Structure formats: structure tokens, C-alpha cells
Amino acid sequence: MRLDELDYHLPPEQIAQRPLDRRDASRLLLLNRSSGAFEDRQFAEFPDLLAGNELLVLNNARVIPARLFGRRAGVRSQKPSRSTRAEHLTGKVEILLTRQVEGDSWEALVRPGRKMQLGERILFGEGELEAEITARGEFGLRTLRFASHDQRTMNEHVERLGHVPLPPYIERADESADRERYQTVFARNPGAIAAPTAGLHFSQEILKRIRARGAEICELTLNVGLGTFQPVHGETLEEHVMHSESYQIPRETVERINAASAAGRAIFA
Question: How many other CB atoms are there within 10 angstroms of residue 4's CB atom?
């Protein structure tokens, strides 16, 4: 499939920059699969549209504050040229954590990436957290090994110093409220760098009404990663290479999905 077959005009003013006061106040497009007819509804109506025997599979991944701003320590840096003098004077570096490799080692996007050599170190905060570039990978990725210089862990530093990695179409800086509003109400397991956005509309009241309707709910963890930010560079979808994402499916969830499938029940995921 060619990308130009999917082109459409989306007016910038139609892209919400902040969430609604109520999660379930968002609009819902209802499509009748038999007739092809569709109509505008509200997400608050979603429980009433269920037959009552469905299985809903929710992603309980929690978004971490994966965007970090630091400064270069100057180790192994290139000598400044006339065009890069200002950059060397400020030494500002932006990091987007994308995947935990092991322990305190993470894959990350680094800006400015090309000028950051292997062995270069980056300091965060007042220097209490430090990262060293240990490897270069595909998609512009770097592997960073973090070290804490006080009693706090690397994860504690990231929670304190990090910023919420809002999607590129949100053209504003992150705010303190985003730490909770850019999460689902069932987010529990930290590790994602983007929210499973279809789940943002669910409220505790909606979940309660879904259960009261008779539908079943189970959970899994899919850590949404770099692939959600990665643009499609080829002319066809088949040329696009997706970035891998980690997941965990509890045995209970597997059993519920298999049972619903065997019974011919609808499964929403």
C-alpha cells in the first residue's frame, strides 16, 4: 500500500493541545459493520453499546518521564568550529529514553546525536546523575550507561528530573498535570515512552459500568516505544521497518482470551 493512499487534510486547529476535563467526554465514532452507517456519539456511551459478553484487554503500561535535558561533560567531544561554537559553549543535550537494555543501561535518542562520540559523558541536574555513551545503533539510537552520584537510584533521578514525552503533534512543553493525564487510569507498570492513547478515554466510572454490563476485563503490559514516534520513510507501508517493543501477558489473561475466542465472544484490545 502506498503512503499517498492514506493522505488526508487535518486542520491544525482540530488537534487538541490539552485534554478535556472529563476523560469520557471525548467523541466516539460508531460504525455499523453490517450497513456501513456511522454516527457521532460520546465515549461515555461506550458501556451501553456493549452486548454484555465481550472481553476487553487493557494495556496497563505506565509512561515514564523519558525526556531528559543535560549538558555535555566535554569528554571526547569534537573541537568547536565556527558553526558549532555556540553549541559547545552551552553544551545542551536532550535525551529520549526508548528502551531499557539491562540494569542502568538504556537505548536512547540523543540530540545533537552526530557530535556525541563514544565515551562522551552527559550530566543531569547538578551532576547527581551521569550517562556515558557506550554504543551506537540503528535509527540514530545510542546506548547510555547511567550512574548515580548520590544515594538515589537511576529510576528515582529520572522520575525527579525527567519530562513527559508528549507526542510531536502536542506543540507545547509538558506540564505537571501531564504526569497523570498522559496516563490511563489503569496504568501500573512503568516502562512505556508513550501512552496507549485509546485507553486514555476510560475512567473508573466507565470501567465500573462495563463490568456491570456483564463484560469481562483483563490486562497485559505492552511498553509503547520508539516505533510510535518513528515516521514512515519509504513510499509503501511494506518498506517500513518497525521498532521492537517489549510486552508481558499474564497467564490469566492468556486463558481468558483463549476462552473468549473459543466461545466466539468479541474481544476488544
Answer: 8
